[in-house]
Design brief:
Helix content is 34%, strand content 17%. By secondary structure, the protein is of the alpha+beta class. β1, α9 and β2 form a beta-alpha-beta unit. The relative contact order is 0.12. It has 13 helices and 12 strands. The chain has a 6-stranded mixed β-sheet with strand order 1-2-10-7-12-5. The protein binds 2-oxoglutaric acid. The site of 2-oxoglutaric acid (AKG) has 10 residues, from β7, β11 and β12.
């Protein structure tokens, strides 16, 4: 605290003025309690500070914060003191500026989303149609970022007519593959996928997945792609261009295999590329949420939401979800779902399932490098 204020404070304390009165005057002049007292002099309850901080950042005013804080059991004077202390804190003012920018981005996204909902194929239903030429697809879907289910894109792939668990067991029995195992033992199985990687023989994996009725415990996923390069190379003979002119076939490392029993579940997330999910065997249920609904999706870390799925979500705990408009579809064998970049999705296998996703479109699809890294882990 500046020295002249220090002298003023000491003189008035000696004159017998109350500490509350003096604090009020100091605060009017922009001096916070933390500047008035040495650290440790005042016991400002940390959880109260967090409460006041969160509410202030949410845009609530002092009176509202005090009333709600009192309902939570804190004394009014302490809440007021914490609030006033915070409002003159330069770090807090920086935070407010950042929040303000964020609020404007969120407003813009919500507004764009509401206007796009005037298009029936945007978020009311997913269009199903025969695969168009690539330039038409780019005009109607890739550039506008509208999902679509495309039919007849893979009729010329041997994989479409041959792939099944039995095919993999018969053609690659001794192939060592990497898969995700023991997923059910970890509620954060997707985020912890590196720890759940296991090597196994193809024939053992296939017999395990055929032996269960419904299970999320084992799954060969895109997270295993690096280790399963050899398998993917061997599978190239069964895969070709999607439709005509969709894929850059020199980029075959941007194709990903998914194989598991009924019951595998990929939790809510978004991809950092545009993605085609091609269903080869069995069915999958996909829930999609527009990318522009990001402000309401509780994206707390990386590409994940605090929620694994939207079913039975607690609207009291996650009130923003009331603005979210999920779309569901069931993907049949031979169908392919275009998932635009940033669109949230969760995926459940309804049967034993084999899929292949690809990102090697003949169009720009490299946005990953500019994705902001998490500042808090
Ligand atoms: O098929 C799945 O289980 C998940 C697919 C997916 O999320 C993706 O390709 O991004």
């Amino acid at each position: 605290m500046p020295q002249d204020w220090q002298i003023w404070l000491e003189q008035n304390l000696q004159r017998g003025c109350s500490e509350e009165q003096l604090m009020a005057v100091l605060k009017q002049h922009g001096l916070a309690p933390s500047q008035v007292f040495e650290p440790g002099d005042i016991d400002i309850d940390q959880s109260l500070r967090e409460f006041v901080l969160e509410r202030s950042l949410a845009g609530d005013g002092g009176a509202e914060i005090i009333a709600d804080g009192m309902a939570k059991g804190w004394p009014a004077a302490q809440i007021e003191e914490t609030y006033l202390d915070l409002t003159v804190d330069p770090v807090f003012r920086k935070l407010l500026q950042t929040q303000q920018k964020l609020n404007k981005c969120s407003w813009m996204m919500r507004t764009q989303d509401r206007l796009r909902q005037l298009q029936p194929n945007y978020a009311a239903q997913i269009e199903r149609k025969s695969v168009p030429g690539f330039s038409e697809f780019v005009q109607q879907h890739y550039s506008l970022q509208v999902p679509v289910i495309l039919l007849h894109g893979i009729e010329h792939w041997p994989a479409r007519h041959q792939w099944s668990p039995e095919y993999f067991a018969a053609h690659f029995p001794e192939q060592m593959i990497e898969v995700q195992m023991h997923r059910q033992s970890d509620p954060n199985f997707e985020r912890n996928s590196p720890q759940l990687k296991r090597l196994t023989l193809m024939r053992d994996f296939i017999s395990k997945l055929m032996a269960v009725q419904y299970s999320n415990d084992m799954y060969l996923t895109a997270n295993n792609a690096a280790q399963n390069k050899l398998l993917m190379q061997a599978l190239q003979k069964d895969i070709a261009d999607f439709g005509t002119g969709y894929c850059d076939l020199t980029q075959s490392e941007r194709q990903f295999l998914w194989m598991g029993p009924a019951g595998t579940f990929t939790p809510l997330h978004y991809d950092l590329t545009n993605n085609m999910l091609v269903q080869l065997y069995g069915r999958k249920k996909v829930t999609l949420i527009p990318a522009l609904q990001m402000p309401d999706m509780y994206n707390h870390c990386w590409v994940f939401s605090e929620l694994n799925c939207l079913d039975n979500a607690d609207l009291k705990q996650y009130p923003q979800l009331q603005h979210v408009t999920p779309l569901e579809c069931v993907l049949e064998p031979g169908e392919a779902l275009f998932i635009p970049i940033g669109w949230w999705h969760s995926v459940e296998s309804l049967d034993v399932s084999i899929s292949l996703s690809f990102t090697n479109f003949n169009q720009m699809n490299q946005f990953y490098n500019e994705y902001p890294s998490d500042l808090i882990k």
